[in-house]
Each structure stands twice: as C-alpha cells, then as structure tokens.
Amino acid sequence: MKKQIGELFDVKQKFVDLNVIECGWEQCAPVKFVEAVKKDFYTIHFVENGKGVIEFRGKKIPLRANDLFVTFPGELISYYPDPKEPWGYYWMCFEGLQADELVGWTGMTRQRPCLRKSPQVNLKGYFASAIEAFEEKGQIVPECVGFLYVILGKLSDENNAEGLNLQQRYVKEALTYIHFNFQFDISVTDIAKNLRVSPNYLSSLFQSQMGISTKEAITRARMEAALKNLQRPELRIKDVAAAVGYADPLYFSKVFRAFYGKTPREVRQEQEKRTKSEKEGTEQAL
C-alpha cells in the first residue's frame, strides 16, 4: 500500500541526503486546480503532454509538453491544466540535505521555478522507472532515489554547472560548506570568510536565490540530520544535539520544536510506539 503525503513524518529522512517521499503520474481533468499551499518539501513535475499554467508571486507562466517545474519548500504556487488541452505530468516529492544544492544546479529558482529541457534529454523513462519501482514495492526504495539523482543530474548537466554565474557559485559553495560543517559551531561569518565575501552579501544571495537566510540554511541542515539521528535509540537526545552542533540540549529542543512542531522527545516516543507496534504485529503473525 502506498504511503500518502499525510504520512510524510513517518518516512522523513529515510535517505538523509536525498529522500523521495512519493511519486506518480496523472492525466489531469480540465477542471483540476491545485491550490497554493506551503509545504516543507520539493515537488518536481515533468509535463508529458498537453498544456497548463503555474501561478506564483503574481506571475502566470504557461507550460507545455517537455517543460518542468518545481514547487519549493515554503513557497506558494498554484497550477492548473489548459481546459482544451489538459496536461498529463509525472511528479516526485522529495527532500534531504542535498536537495537545495541539487535543485540549484538545475537552474530552477524560486523566482523562475520552471524550465524547458532540450529534446535530446529524455527524462520520461527515469520518471516512469521510479514510479514503477515505487508501485511494485509499495514503498520508496533506493531505486526511486537513484532515478531522482539521475533526473537532477541530467538537468544539471544541461544547465552546465560550470556555467553558473558568480552569485550561483557562491550559494553552491556555501551549501557545500554547510553540508560538511553543520555539526560544528559555524556561523554566517565563518561561511562568508571561507568564500571571501561579506556576511551581508552572502545573506542577500541566499534570500534572492533560495528564499531563506544563510542562518536558516544552517538550521535546516542541522534539523534534518537531527531527525535522522533520533532514529538511533542508542543516542541520547543530548548526544543528538551535540552531533548537529548544539552544546545546550534545551536550546536544541526549542529549535527542533520550532522547526518540526514536535520536541525531540515526542518524536522519539512516537518512534518507540511504532517499533513496539511492529514488533507485536510480527509476534502475532508468528
């Protein structure tokens, strides 16, 4: 049985660097309209046929077959099919420590969350294979994540990562620095110094290209890693806090609750209940 979006919390961080939440294909009815709702994960869409429109930040952009668009975490975007030629599209919901960086390499941004790929880049097969693996197993499996890596990699190659402008390279390098150093007591100033730019300039780049501050990017990386570490029962909460850069467990819990809406202890208790329930179910089956 497929997991639904409402069960996101249960599957979050199954793969910490890049995690597919759900995927599918839909031939939309002419009257289908997806309301703008803020979500905390990405969704990439590949239009296979027909036409449609996306609306965001007061803009309307028409799309057609072979176009792609991404809904960004925390960003409001609506989309709907053309009433005469309704679109059919593949979609994949995903998240992870590398998600921001990988999406950034494709050239899609919060200001321009869509692109038209060249006819030479065939993505349909990768989307279809990911969905086939998902439906065959009834859950997200490594193959799904692998196909997503390939899709984002193909788009990155087409965008030519070496052709990124200076501002994009700064953000890319900053995200890489965060990825490898979030467990330490790093600051925006540390990152800016590493890139040899001012902290204010770096923050302005993050706001313009990602819609979040540099500090928020650090917090996001830490919180996603913390959620993954909480799945390890041998680690005490203070150990999880220290592992993601927080010397004060109480402050860590406060930040965690603000980010996820639950305390680390509540998350661990939910995990323990699920583990106990699964164990009892296995014992009854035997």
How would you explain this protein's 3D organization?
This protein has 286 residues and is an alpha+beta fold. It has 2 domains: 5-162, Regulatory protein AraC (Jelly Rolls), CATH 2.60.120.280; 166-270, Homeodomain-like (Arc Repressor Mutant, subunit A). It is built from 11 helices and 8 strands. It is globular and about 60 Å long. 33% of the residues are buried.
Helix content: 40-55%
| SSE series | HEEEEEEEHEHHHHHHHHH
CATH level 3 topology of the largest domain: Jelly Rolls
Q: What is the name of the CATH class of the largest domain?
A: Mainly Beta
List the total number of helices: 11
Q: Give the neighbour order of strands across the main sheet.
A: 1-7-2-5-8
CATH superfamily of the largest domain: Regulatory protein AraC
Mean pLDDT: 84
For the CA atoms, what is the radius of gyration? 20 Å
The main sheet comes to: 5 strands, antiparallel
How many domains? The number is 2
Per DSSP E runs of 2 or more residues, the count of β-strands stands at: 8
Low-confidence stretches: 1-13
* Estimated structural class: alpha+beta
* CATH architectural label of the largest domain: Sandwich
- The N- to C-terminal Cα distance equals 22 Å
Q: How much strand?
A: 15-25%
Molecular shape:
globular
Supply the key terms.
8 strands, Arc Repressor Mutant, subunit A, alpha+beta, globular, disordered N terminus, 286 residues, 3-stranded antiparallel sheet, 5-stranded antiparallel sheet, 2 domains, Jelly Rolls
Task: Please summarize what this structure is.
The chain has 286 residues and is of the alpha+beta class. Helix content is 48%, strand content 17%.
